[in-house]
Amino acid sequence: MLTFLLTQTADKITPRPSGEIPMNKPTKTQSSPHPRGTKATEPLLPRKDWPQLYMDSVIWDAHACLPLLPNYDCSALERHRAAGATYVSVNVGMDFNPLSQCIRVIAGFRDWIKRHPDHYVLADTLADIHRAKKEGKLAIGFDLEGSVMLDDDLAMLGLYRDLGVRQMHLAYNRDNQIAGGCFGKNQGLTKLGRQVVQEINRVGIIMDCSHSAKQTSLDVMEVSTKPVVFSHSNAKALCDHPRNIDDEQIKAVGRTGGIVAITGIGPFLGADIATDTIIRHVDYMVERIGVAHVGIGIDYSFDQDHSDLPAGEDPALWWPKVKGAEFNFSTLRFVSPERLPDIAAGLLKHGYKDADVIAIMGGNFMRVAEVCWK
Ligand SMILES: [Zn+2]
């Protein structure tokens, strides 16, 4: 998740009054005819132009972000469903969000999904995803970005898994007591971190390395007995940014049987967010580790006016300025879910075979989930 922290100031964040307990009833936002983030930001390719294989396949978006608010109206997810997505992994917490907030966000998201069974389903098994595809529903899993919300307790991993967390990485940009973040001091996994990876393997969560320090990612891939993914990271050779990954990391993740999922965040793509640019990053990964190890994790943030950073926290602590890759968050561009059919069409146009496109758009993640989720 990007969270657009640099456009946000702490005083723009409106904390809930202390002691307020979210109620399971429609909120003001939920009763609004146009909840925030529900409006498409770019035109959807006409359905008649969608490749048939896109309509027939499982389409997997490995990362998306709703505001981390209890009882949030998740209607914006309709944009994924309308764009033909079958599964989306929705963030439920980063390292700056405390355990209590993560649990309440999960509670609210789960409640919303269960209240809208005609269009959405919580993904517990691969069968749920296949069923969602057949019934035109969107299957949803959750992901965590960091490990502070574990509270150093390995048993929390099983709980999060049972609550719907199906993918997680261990450090969000900064180093912590478990792992190193990509803006930290290239810290590796700590002793506890190694145990966390083993427990993630055991309980059935996909091990993710986006936002991690290079050394942590290499350590994770050495310790993990299951395939590892980068759920939203691009090629550093094409776009030199600390959030992107180099050839050593790319080849290592391929060796685990895992996936690099290309993200649609402008500063991680490079000059622009055109579909051709996304495909250049796909090509780069495919040339190094093969079609079977590439996916899509566009990391769309549905409410760009909202910050999940706690009041008073300095955004620069989490998103330091990057020399040579500075960008203005207020003019930041990113790929929206409406682009998913266009990406599939673009891959075909660029010479990928039908089977390759099916694999990149979701088949590879289904394979990894089958091994990792148990
Ligand atoms: Zn992220």
Question: Which tags fit this structure?
Answer:
12% strand, ten-stranded parallel sheet, binds zinc ion, globular, TIM Barrel, 374 residues, alpha/beta
What does this protein look like?
- The protein has 374 residues and is α/β, with parallel strands linked by helices.
- The chain has a single domain (58-373), classed as Metal-dependent hydrolases (TIM Barrel), CATH 3.20.20.
- Helices cover 36% and strands 12% of the residues.
- It has 14 helices and 10 strands.
- The protein has helices spanning 28-31, 52-56, 78-82, 99-114, 126-135, 155-162, 191-203, 214-223, 247-255, 266-269, 275-289, 315-318, 340-349, 354-373, and strands at 60-65, 87-94, 120-122, 138-145, 165-169, 206-208, 228-230, 259-262, 294-296, 300-301.
- Strands 1, 2, 3, 4, 5, 6, 7, 8, 9 and 10 form a 10-stranded parallel beta sheet that branches.
- The longest helix is centred in the C-terminal third of the chain and has 20 residues, at 354-373.
- It is globular and about 50 Å long.
- Residues 3-31 have low confidence and may be disordered.
- The structure holds zinc ion.
- The site of zinc ion has 6 residues, from loops.
- Residues 1, 145, 210-211, 232, 299 line the site of zinc ion.
